[in-house]
Design a protein that fits this description.
- The protein has 102 residues and is mostly helical.
- The protein has five helices and no strands.
């Protein structure tokens, strides 16, 4: 009998909507994954659903600016500047670099 690898893949456990979107906007990598998998429409949906979860984080402001740049560059810039200030306060150099590019 020849050993062969199964083609089965494990599916991730179901996550509540609130947790999924809060995580998706929590850092650069998660936001990028959301954007790659679901596009700008998915990013906007995640932002819309996560908007009522409390005070915005630096990354949520960064991703909001990203989405806004296609509609209103002035509003996008305001979000990026706010995210930049938060990244500075948090000492997040990679976040600061990303926001500074906006």
């Amino acid at each position: 009998m020849t050993a062969r690898r199964s083609d089965l893949r494990l599916a991730p456990a179901a996550v509540t909507r609130d947790t999924a979107h809060r995580t998706a906007l929590a850092d650069c990598a998660e936001g990028e994954r959301l954007l790659q998998r679901h596009g700008l429409r998915g990013l906007r949906a995640a932002q819309s659903e996560a908007s009522g979860t409390g005070w915005p984080t630096a990354w949520s402001q960064f991703w909001r600016g990203y989405a806004l740049q296609f509609e209103d560059l002035a509003l996008a810039r305001a979000e990026w500047l706010a995210a930049e200030a938060r990244f500075t306060d948090e000492g997040d150099a990679s976040g600061f670099d990303m926001a500074a590019c906006g």
